[in-house]
Amino acid sequence: MSCKRKLLSVFFAVACALLIGQAAQAQMLPFDLENMDNAVGVGIGMMPDYQGSNDYMAGGAPFFKITLAPKTDYYARLLATDLQVNIINSPVFRFGPAINYRFGRSDDVEDDVVKHMKEIDGTVEAGAFIGFQLVDKDNPRNRFLSQIEFLGDVGGEYEGWNIALSANYYFQVHKAVDLIVGAGINYADDNYMETYFGVDQEDSDRTDNILPVYEADAGFLMARVNVGAVMHLSYQWHIAAGVQYRPLLSDAADSPVVDDRGDSNQWVAGLGVAYTW
User: How many CA atoms lie within 13 A of 6 on its CB side?
Assistant: First the structure.
């Protein structure tokens, strides 16, 4: 398996998300961890070969949440490639900078046509997030979390931006088990959509005109619906499993890369383990 595949697969997000929040969401572990300063873990999972692919790959990724000052809500959180730092000391609101590494699309993908298109290099994105959480006073394990994250390309690959809105609800169903249901939606500008879903004349020629020229405009990129469960083996050890359905929308779904060669119905699934203290 190539380095690109090993790394791209880390963004499976669901298993880790169940433990420390959605991929587009920097939140606490769902085990009344407001009093926990640190969490570290690893997950394994599967996800599409690239955005819009109907081929899947497997891999793993680390994640962590570190409280930056004792008895505060300041923290740094890494989820696979996405790093957020909360700079607001509030039990309800959170805000801060975000940095993400977005993988591209190389020429070693499984699809025999898409592999002939120009490579899309990985790039660094930077931006900010803002969110809030509502906690059940009678049972802190029941909580609603929501966040918006804005990211812009600073690595010069697609030179655009994208924004993600997510919401999750955690609720206790057993002394040792929490369930999670969530949803979200992503929007991307012209540059993002054209880079990852457009087909220019050169790409059409490279594929012997199997893929027609196609211009992708700004619009909603994908929706997200996720379900999963977290089992608490002890106060320190937790495992989780889940699945996320993320259908591509608008011009992303209509792209020949997706409609002709891939699948707009995208799935991510994973299993993770975390240690907290």
Answer: 4
